[in-house]
Amino acid sequence: QPAIVASVCFNWFNRKKDFSTIMLGVEPEFELALYTATHLLKANGASKLTLDASRRWRLEVQNFENDFALNHVHAAYLYRLKD
């Protein structure tokens, strides 16, 4: 079954996170590796990629570098691109 990109909001340590994304149906290690690889390619910007040869999984990962700790990911958001 293919993975799903879901938009979620949640509370973490009494702070509200209004928007985040998560991939359902894949290992968490894969998602972290995806964010790390795209951060290394473009720390402050968007990376477009395709995960399969049929081009059904076209994604964009938007990375934001931490202004206070360079070379650390501040935030990374995953978007599934429309065909």
TrEMBL record:
Gene Ontology MF terms: hydrolase activity; RNA endonuclease activity
Database matches in Pfam families: XendoU (PF09412)
Domain EndoU, first and last residues per copy: 5-77
Leader sequence residues: none
Highest taxon listed in the record's lineage: Eukaryota
Keyword field contains Nucleotidyltransferase: no
Keywords, ordered alphabetically: Hydrolase
Protein name: EndoU domain-containing protein
Lineage: Eukaryota, Metazoa, Spiralia, Lophotrochozoa, Platyhelminthes
